[in-house]
Amino acid sequence: MRRSIAIMRLKIAGIIVTLTLGILVVMSFAADAQRSGKVYRLGFISSSVTSESHPFLEGLRQGLSELGYKAGKNIKIEYRFGKKQELPRLAEDLVKLQVDLIVAGGSQGIKAAKKATQTTPIVMTNSGNAQRSGFVASLARPGGNITGMTQISPELAAKRLQLLQETVPGLSKVAVLWYPLHPNTPNTFKETQEASQKLGLQLISLEVKAPTDFDAAFSTALKQRAEGLVVLRDPFMVRHRTLIVKFAMEHQLP
């Protein structure tokens, strides 16, 4: 059940990406495509999404279809999946293909796309703090050739904790599971710390650097009587989501 919900959320995320202002503005040539018969090329680059059948990409294609873009008819998607160190080369490959737009997944994908081109429009998805990372000047006025969505900001950190407070009346102790080796996660953790102080919550830091650290982290959460769990999302945590969900369910930790 939880797996199906997670898949649905990923698919919805893909749809949302195509409905953001960035897509609507930089790809407002649907009518032109239909009139001219031109097939536009969209590039997708990511290290965390690794196959065309990924739910996020299913949602992306569905969203494009709803905007009038039909694969093989007036749009072609060039997929580039690879490890972190391969992304710069893959981004350059998309630029050489002269794609009309690049959808970049994850901070590393966005960074690679930004370095590869200052002219091709880039829509970021699943980014860290886009402003702090230097991808955009601000969320309201991004500037340059990048727009899209960010999943990290001080407001979002506070909102996650507020939602947990609403779920658990009288909440006072929150465990935060985080991976310090991801470039964006330390900033996210700092923002979560600041938000917890403003909300009067005691934060329990569960730092995990390797899969073997999970047992110790879970033990700390139980010993310190955590009443809720916040997981700072990144590819590492996504890979180990089953283990995390199992722990939370076994100990009834929201």
Automatic annotation (TrEMBL):
<dbReference type="Pfam" id="PF04392">
    <property type="entry name" value="ABC_sub_bind"/>
</dbReference>
<dbReference type="InterPro" id="IPR007487">
    <property type="entry name" value="ABC_transpt-TYRBP-like"/>
</dbReference>
<protein>
    <recommendedName>
        <fullName>ABC transporter substrate-binding protein</fullName>
    </recommendedName>
</protein>
